[in-house]
Structure formats: structure tokens, C-alpha cells
Amino acid sequence: MTERPSGRPRTAASRVTVPWVRTRLRTAPGAAAALALLVAVTAFLAAALPPALDRYDEEGMRRALEAAGPTRTSVQIQVSDADMYLSDGPWEDLLSQEAVAGPFAKLLALPGRALPLDEDQSSAGVRTTRAMKAPDAYLSQPDGVAPVFHLVAQGGVAEHSRLTQGRLPKAPEDPGPGAGSLEADSLEAAVTTETAKKLNIRVGSVVHFPRAEGDPLAVRVTGLVAPREPDGAYWSALPELGRPHRMVTQGPVPSQYWAGALLLAPDAGPALLATPGAPARYWTLAPDLSALHGRDLEALTSAVASLEGGPLLERITTTVSPNLDVSTDLDDVLGGYKGLWSAIGPLVAVAAFGTGTVAAVVLCMAGGLAAARRRAELTLLRARGASLRGLAGRLLAETVVVAVPAAALGLLAARLAVGTGRPAQSAVAAGAVALVAALALPLRAVAAHRAVGVHTGREDVVRARPSKRRLVAEVTLLAVAAGAVLTLRTRGTSADGDPTGDELVSLAPVLVAVIAALVLVRLYPLPLRGLARPARRMRGVVGPLSLARAGRAGGSTVLPLLALLTALTTAAFGGSVLTGVTDARERAAVFAVGADARVFDLTEAAKGVEERVRRAPGVDDVTPVKVSYSALAGNQRVSLAGVEPDAYAALSSRLDDGAFDADTLKADGEDTVPALGSPALAERFGDDPFPVILEDGDSFTARVVAVRTWTPALGADDFLVVDGSALRAGLEPPTGLLVIGDPPDAAALRKAAGDDAQVQLRSDVVAATVESPLQTGAERVYAAAVAAGAAYAALALLLTLLRAAPERAALLARLRTMGLTRAQGRRLLILESLPQAVLAAVGGALTAWAAIRLLAPGIDLTTVAVSTGAPAAGRALLRADQLSLLVPALAVVALTVGVAAAQAWWSGRRGAVRELRAGDAR
Amino acid sequence: MTSDPTLADLTERVAARRDRPAYGHDALITCDRLVRVFTADGVEVQALQGLDLLVREGELMALVGASGSGKSTLMNILAGLDTPTAGAARVAGRDLLTMSARDRLAYRREVVGFVWQQTSRNLLPYLTSAQNVALPMQLSGRPGGRSRSARRARAERALELLEMLEVADCRDRRPDEMSGGQQQRVAIAVALAGDPAVLLADEPTGELDSHTGEQIFAAFRTANERLGTTVVIVTHDQAVANEVSRTVAIRDGRTSTEVLRRSEVDAATGDEKVVAREYAMLDRAGRLQLPAEYTTALGMRDRVALELEPDHIAVRPDDSGREDR
Q: Is residue A385 domain-shared with residue A480, that is, in the same domain?
């Protein structure tokens, strides 16, 4: 007994009392660090989801609004004619600058925060509501039709433009109250440089507008202005203000003409009474796009509705005038965006729920693993007099100290890396992660150590008789899950209107996985039990031994199996969605193009194009077609294509849609030409022959011999496809070329086709289908979720294997003393782990297949794949993608086998002394 | 046994029975017809089949028996880690059958301390010896447990215990820095930390060599003598009988024989010598287990003939068979 020199009681007291958390952290820094890492990464992912959603939501909405343009998104308020007729004051006053600017300030303040407005881009003024013809000969007249103009006295032209030439216009001198400015014969105006260029206007040009009485009104152009932001709402909310538009007359022969605007001085409003254009005050309120958020969609929609016909409209009418129109397409734009969002929302939710479940399971498993590893220690603590509450408290303190800072770190990292949207949701998500991580170990320990006792019974699958209470709990869970799935099946998955998705739909893969996990865990020991007996008669030692070991593997495998199944289902579902989306895009592109590329609008002069296109790099085959879009079948207008039957049939069959037998289409010189027709035509004419007249006067009698809904040359409208030899001029020259290639070189094709012909590539169309950041964002979130889910599933697998690792190492060590070779050891571990891995893989594939079958009817990928307005390619339905089903499942098997082999290798290298120490009863 | 008792006789007899002290009234540990049945895979195994045992306060005794004789089961029951199926078991006035979870916790904290066979399982590997000893006191969470004085008191007691068991030099070492014997002595200190009435030890020397084993027994004796703690040691090692004053053998879930050791002074020589004498246990129903070697030696089977003599009972092999056949 050696006495220590130090003063005993004081220092000893501090050394003897155990600072639990500190001691534990110091004892197992590795475990604490691993938990911290797991929690930090999980919290990061959980906290990153809300801002990521927010970001693409926001970007998507902004893009949708930008794509719609100021013409549709701005709110137009215009005083109607009645305002003028019903008033008794001098009309000039109603059009004065004060009458415009006064209400403008109030209008800008009116919608408040619900609809933030961009004051700079909003505009107000007086303009003619009817366009007026200007028959001056020097103005550009493409088809000999005189251009039309609006006269616009909009405030702030000087601030929003740069004067390039001349001077800004002035309002005519005020002739005094009551004196008819109707008599004013000349006005001054500016035009934008673009209007000037397109319409051939110069400084000093005078535009004349004939009036019903008297001389025409002369508007002298005093200057040219260049808009500072030509695409901003100020210049483009009114269509013709910034740049002239090409219009088309109605009637049998369409002719083009220009429509433009002449910019008057802001205070020249009253002078417009001298024009026949029915002047009116107007205000254009441009929404501030940078202040609009996807998450405010509801408020925004209701604000717009209120503006168009609600309380806000009421207040506008009291502010301005009872007679006014408020119009905007903002609600349509928002509605379209909301439709896209609600189509994409459920898909993203499926991924989020799936990955969330897997992550939660992994956190629980990590707690379970820790509890299992520390079982002896915890049993000792309980035996030495630790109360259940005390034990839980100590463990909770341990995990909280690690989990809470780690989660906070993850949250911080997520906010820094991804964005700052939806802070509350991020915090809640990270907090939930911390909570699960902190509670898993204490709860698990409390459950295991509720009764203090010596655990001596055999705890394995084959003989395990799970308690009745557990059976009841599992059956209850099973019933709930099955009920939910049944509800889903009978009710269908189409959740209308709710952009966040129906939780039941989103949970479906998880529910299916829960059912499968519970059922499989119960069924799985049966074949093992059945096999164990005959296997004993096998000659080798490894086979029966591994089978027996697989049967005796640790009891509770529901959690890891659930994690694996959910992850596999989510991954396969995601893979199928992404494949489906790609397929839908390809299909839409094929529908739009009809081949890998298409050259069309070929003119008579473009001879030799076909040869040149054939020689272009990447081109495998070219099918010439002669297309007429206004042929008459009977008296119905149809699209008609003349083709070379063999080549066209080959092309059609290659695109696996619209395929037909070439021989049926061949015209063999008889009177009736066999034709391929659309269903509508076939229904109309049946088997009867009918006359076909082409634009060039060619005519023949045709009969529909085959019906297809789609054909490469013409798409899916009413069409006829006939043998080109039946046409008077044959196929020479073709009007279009359908090009097959891998892929054709775009630049070379364009060069070969010449300037006049148009070239459309399928790859370009595919690229163009992805329009909204909402779509790309959804895809990205989905891909990230699937990747994270896969990583967690792999982790779950590793945790399961890790849990049994010491026991397996001990077994190998013992068996090796009995003469087991390394190769046999390796085989043993691999064979032993295979049954569970195969179970998970097969179960996962089945679950995924079932989940996809279950959800497919309600999931329309068309919206995700191609934006609204893209050519209709039919509904893209969700199909189980074999690759997505098989690859993750096989990865599970490969990973398991890999880990088993690695462990065999590792324990083969290490000495076996520790495992063989007596007393370490494993 | 008289016939036709009068009412007065009966009353007297009942009163006498009532006033007679209850079974084991003066014992610290009382096991009365203790039964423990395990059910595994539908097969019932009777580990204890009506075991009777009395241990008086301050005793140092050993329970010996072959593997599977039920001694570990008895140990777990006494430790409050297992509940008997039937019978009665009382330790320090607490009924082990009817204890609630809360009572059980208090029981483990205040009444019993134990030491297991595996040296490594008695101590938390990441705590020093002193901390391990202090831990049960900390866990029991007595009022004022967090105050400075309470902490100092705990430290004092921990060091005292270590010193008493002659492992004070190990107080700042972790279990893996100590020998098996040292670990086991620290474990005894841990078990004594809560100042228990009973110290239970399950094969405490199982992993140790005989010399170290002797040291451990010395430690138990020290605890028994200096603290007055009742010590019950379970072992399969018959040699233990030489180390303790009372050895009870368990066979087939029942106590069978008992060896008492006491020192006697030889009247002739005046030398003091230790006398060990083996007894058979007589249970309350009057059942007696005869040692197997006795019965086989005399070919006793099925039944024996008893004769009551003035100072003993003679047991003879059954001799009625010849006439019967």
C-alpha cells in the first residue's frame, strides 16, 4: 500500500465523485464523434430541405412571372368611357395631369404588403383607347395596310428613357378654360428608336390622323427616345409602347400592318380630346417581382382576386372613379404556377417522407446499437442501484451534450449553404433530428433495463417467441398501414389543390415498407427453420453452419429491414419518376419533331438539300416527305403527307409509334390510293373512298386502309399519309426531310438545309422542355433525397452488421482454433449474411414495385416532364423502371457481402487473443 | 400423541403453536420452501424445488453445489434480480416475493451488495477504483447527494473501504490496470459501498488462481468481521468449506447437507483445532436427504427402516422385502 503524498480528502473528493458526462465522453470519444457526425449531417439535410424548397419555389414563381411578361403580370386600371359621359365638369380636367398623378400615389399604396408594387416600373397617364390609322405613305406598310397608332401621354418618359435625337415633346399651349382644345390641329410626340426604325419615322416626321370632321390631326415627331429598360413593365405593360407590333388583319386574305405608339408630353392629356381615339386615364401597377415569394402564393392570389373584384376594387373605385376597369392576367399566371407546384409537390413529398423515415430509423438504430453495446454496463449500473429515471437521465445527458450542438451546427451549415427561407421549418426539422438522436439511446435503454435481471435466454430469430404485447403492437401497426394503403387504393391518389401534397399519398412508400417489413420479419425464419434440418446432413461444414448462424442472427431486425425497404422503395420510386420524366420528354420531343431532326419549309429552289443533308455528319438516314397542310378530304381540311412507303414505314417503326406495314400503303396504279389516316378521318369515311384535293389542284381518290393516332411527318392532328407516287408531282421536290441520326450535327444540318429551310432537332426540343426552376429544382431535390436515402440505408446496413461484429469476430476466432481456414471463414460470414441481404433486396424490389403500382394512377408526370404549353404527348404515366428496381436491390446484396468479406479479412489479420479471453462471454 | 383431546387441550395447543416463533424469525435470510420454475420452449425446469435456508446475521457462509443444482438461481433471487415462483423468501425483513419495482430498487441500494464471477463485469471499465466504489453511493441519490460535504463523505468512505480491503494503492487505476485479484477486491469494496446487510458473491474466485482466491476469501472475512456484514458465497468449489464457518450444499434444487466448522479446544491436550462436521439438512416437514454415497453403500432404495432410539434415529436398509416376495 503506497500512500500518495497529496493532501487526500480535498482532491480525492473531486477525483472520486464521477462527473458522468465528462467521463463518458472521454471514455468513448469515437462513439460520441460518430453520433455527432450522424446528427450534424442529418440535421443539415433536414434543415436544408425547407430553404431548398423555398428557393426553387421562389425561383420558379419568379421565372413564371418573368416568362409571362409585364403585359400579363401588371395590373391595368383604366377609366371607362362612362366616366367621361357621366361627368358634367370640363372634360379637360378629367384628363389633366393632376387627375392622373393624384390617384396614382394612392393606388400605389393601396394593395399594401399582400401585393408589393414596383413604383419605378408602374406608370400612369392618358392614352387613346382606340388605335388610329395613319395613312401617311412614308410609314412602313408591309402589305399595303396603313399602320395604327395609340397616342400616349404617360408620365415619366424622360426618366425612363434616353433622348437620342431631337427634343422631348411639349404639350400644346393651354388655350384657356372651356376653349375647345378639340380645335387643336397639331400635337408634338416622341417615338422610341425601335418604333422609328420599324415604321420609318424620323425627327420632324408628321403623322396624320384623319378625323371625322375637319383636317386630319397632325402629330409632329420632335424626338427619338431609347428606353432604359425596354423589357421593364414601364415600357412593355402596354403592348405597343416600347416597340411596334406586327398585326394581322382579319378576313380571307391576312395582311400584316404595324401598330405603334406616339409618346406625348405627360401633361398633354387634355389635348387628346382632339383625337378620335377616345382618350382615357390609365394606371399600370407593376408587381415587384423580387418581393414576391412562392410561399406567399395564397395571400398573393387573394390580393389579386380582391383587386379584380373584391374589397380592393371597391377602394380603387372610391379613390379614382366609379367607372373603371381593372384587368390583369396575374391570377392566371399564378394559377398556372400553382398547378405546376401542386403536381410537383407530392413527388417531392414522397422523397422527403421516405428519406426522413430512413433517417429516423437510422438514428433509432444508432441508439439501439449503443444500448446493445453497453448492455453489460447498464445492467451493472441497474444492479448497483441506479433507478430507471437516473439511468435514463444520465444517458440523456450524454446524448444531449452531443446531439444538440451537432444539430445546431448542422442547422447553421444548412442556413449558410442553402439559403435563409423558412427559418422556423428549418429549426423544427433540425430540432426533431436532435430530439430523436437524443432520445433513442435512453428510451431503448429504459425499455431493455426496465426489469433488472440477468439475461441468459437465447435471443435469436428461429426460436425467439416475441412477446404477446409486441405481437399486438405489430398487428395494430400492420392494420393501420394496410388500412391506409387500402384507402389510398380505393380513393385514388389525385389530390387536388393542395400544393403540399397529400400526406397519405406521400407516406405510401413508407406504409408499404412498414407492412412488408413486419410481414417479412415474421415469415423469414420459417424457411430457415425448414432448411436447418436437411442442411445438417450436408457434407460441408460451412453451409449448415452459416445457415444455422443466419437463423440465429440477432432478434430485432424489423428496424433495419424497414430502413432498407423504405430506402429501396424511395430510390426505386425516384428512379422510376426520373426515368419516366426523361421518357416523357423524349416522347414529347419525338412527337414534336417526328424524328431525330426535321428539316422543313423547303422551297422549290432548294434542290439538292436532301443530298447535302444525307452527307452531314451524324446523319444515318433521311426520309423525304411532301407535306400539304391545307389539303381537302371530302370537304374537310386535313394535313397530307406524301411519302416513300418503305422508307417511311421503316422510320415509323423505328420511333416505335405510328408503325405500319409498308405494303399496305403502296399505290399500285389503281384509282383508289390507300392512305394512312388519323382516327377522326377513319371514323368519318370508314372504308369508303373519298376525294382528296391538294392546294396545287392535284386530286385523287383515297381510302383509309390503316389508322394511327400519330405519324412522324404530321403529328397527331387530322392527317392522311399516302404514297408519294400517287401525287402528280411525286415527291420531287420534298417539302420536308425527316432525319435519323445519332445525333445529327445541328450546325452541319443547318448549313446543309440552307437559309430558307428550318431545322428542328429533337435534342433541342428536349432541352427546351425543361422550363421552370420548379421542375429542375424538384428533380434536384428528388435526386438528393434518393441519394441521402440510399446513404442512410447503407448506414443502416452497416449498423446492423456492426452490431453483430464482435460476436462474429469471437466466433471466427473460436472456429479458427478448431481448424477453420481463412477461406472457410470468409465463406461462412458471406453465406451467413446472404439470407438477410437477399431478403432485404427481394423485399425492397417487391415493395418498390407495389408502391409504384399503388401510386401510379395518381401521379401525372407530364407536368413535371414538360411544361404547360409544350406539345401534348399524351399523359406520361409512372411505370416501374426495372433498372431502378434492380440496381439498389443488388447494391444492398453487394454491400452486405462486401462488408462480410471485409470483416473476415480484417479479423483474419488481427490476432484472436482478445476474443478468446475467458469470461468475456459473447 | 394422545387420543380424545379436550377443548382445553386443543386451545392450549393452538396457543402454543401461535406463540412459537415463526420459521426463521431470528434469521437475516429466510428461504421457506422456495420454488423457481423456468419455462423454456414449453419445457418446465424446476431450478428450486422447495428450498429451505436460514442465514443468521453476521454469518459467513458458502453455498456449494454442482452446475445446475440451482445455486445461481437462489443467488439471483436473493439479489433481487429474479422472483421465486412460490414459497417465501425474506431478507432483512423484506419479502422478496411481494416487492414492487420501487422496493426492489431500494432493496438493491440498501440491503444487498454483490460480486460476480467475472472480474471484468463487476466494475465499469472507464472508472477508477475509487470512482467505482463511489458510484453506488452516487446512484442511490440520497438527499444532499450533490453537496460538497456529501461528496467528501463518499470519497472518505470509498477510500476507507479500499484501504480495508488492502487495495488503496489502486484507487486511481482503472480495472484494466489491475490484476484479477485486485479487481475482485475492488468489486467487494463496491458491493460494500452501500453498507448492505448482506453481501452476495457468485463464484467470486472462479477466474482466479488458488492463492489469489485465498486473498479474496480473506477480504470477505475482513468485511464480515470488521463491518459485520453477512456474507453468502456461492461456489462449486468444495474446498471453500475450509475457508468459511458454514457450508451448505445444494442438490437438485434443495439444500442437502451442511458442514459446520468450529474451533474446539481439545480437553486432553489443550490444543485448539478446527473441527468440521457434516450434517444432513432436516426440513420443516421432517424430510431428510441422505448423502448418495451412504445410500449406495448400503444399497438403500425406495424405502428405509427407521427406529427411534433415545438419542438418535437409526436408518436401516429395507428388510421387509423378503417376506413380501
A: yes
Closest chain B residue to A24, measured at CA:
B126
B61 touches chain A (CB under 8 A): no
Low-confidence ranges of chain B (pLDDT < 50): 324-325
**Judgement on whether residues A879 and A742 belong to the same structural domain of the protein:** no
Q: What is the ipTM of this complex?
A: 0.81
The shortest CB-CB distance from A17 to any of B81, B105, B151 is to: B151
With 70 as the cut, is the pLDDT of residue A744 above it?
A: yes
For A455, the closest chain B residue by CA position comes to: B81
Last residue of a domain, one of A697, A727, A756: A756
- Measured in angstroms, the CA of B304 and the nearest CA of chain A are apart by 41
pLDDT digits (tens, 9 = 90+) for B152-170: 888 888 888 888 888 888 8
- Tell me which residues of chain B, numbers 243 to 262, contact chain A at a CB-CB cutoff of 8 Å: none
| Domain total in chain A | 3
Same domain (yes/no): A494, A522? yes
Residue A343 sits in the same domain as residue A319? no
Listed residues A294, A327, A360: the one ending a domain? A327
- Cross-chain residue pair B163–A1, CB shorter than 8 Å: yes
Say which amino acid occupies B317. P
A355 lies in the same domain as A504: yes
Contact A381 B124 (CB under 8 A): yes
- Overall residue count recorded for chain B in this entry: 325
Beta strands in A131-244 (DSSP E): 132-133, 148-154, 161-166, 186-192, 206-209, 217-227
Nearest to B131 among A8, A16, A454 (CB): A16
Give the residue from chain B lying closest to A394, CA to CA: B139
> Does the residue A176 lie in any domain?
no
Section A425-431 average pLDDT: 92
Q: Do A919 and B166 touch (CB under 8 A)?
A: no
- The residue of chain B with its CA nearest to that of A378 is B124
The alpha-helical segments, DSSP class H, found in B194-281 are: 210-222
Residue A175 lies in a domain: no
Q: What is the DSSP string of B139-203?
A: HTT-TTTTSHHHHHHHHHHHHHHHHHTT-GGGTT--GGGS-HHHHHHHHHHHHHHT--SEEEEES
What number of C-beta contacts closer than 8 Å exist between A and B?
A: 109
Same domain, A819 and A698: no
CB A452 to CB B80 under 8 A? yes
- C-alpha distance from B57 to closest chain A C-alpha (Å): 22
Q: Which of A13, A377, A919 sits opposite B207 (nearest CB)?
A: A919
Residues A274 and A252 in one domain: yes
Q: Do A515 and A553 share a structural domain?
A: yes
Query: Contact B120/A387, CB-based, under 8 Å?
Result: no
Q: Which residue type occupies B56?
A: R
Domains in chain B, please, with CATH?
Answer: 29-265 (3.40.50.300), 290-324 (no CATH)
Asked whether residue A465 is domain-assigned, the answer is yes
**pLDDT (0 to 100) of residue A429:** 92
Per residue in A50-83, pLDDT tens?
Answer: 888 888 888 888 888 888 888 888 888 888 776 6
Q: What local confidence, expressed as pLDDT, does residue A664 receive?
A: 78
Q: Would you mind telling me the total number of residues written for chain A in this entry?
A: 922
Instruction: Give the whole-angstrom CA distance, residue A163 versus residue A224.
Output: 6
Q: Are B41 and A463 within 8 A, CB to CB? A: yes
Range of lowest pLDDT (A28-32, A706-710, A825-829, A871-875): A871-875
Which helix (H) or strand (E) element contains residue A565? helix A558-593
- Considering only CA atoms, which of A446, A445, A433, A453 is closest in space to residue A369? A445
Residue A921 forms part of a structural domain: no
Contacts of A95 (CB under 8 A, 6+ apart): A126, A269, A270, A272, A273, A279, A281
Give me the residues of A, 454-513, that contact B with CB < 8 A.
Answer: 454, 457, 463
Q: What residues make up the domain containing A879? A: 24-51+338-583+773-916
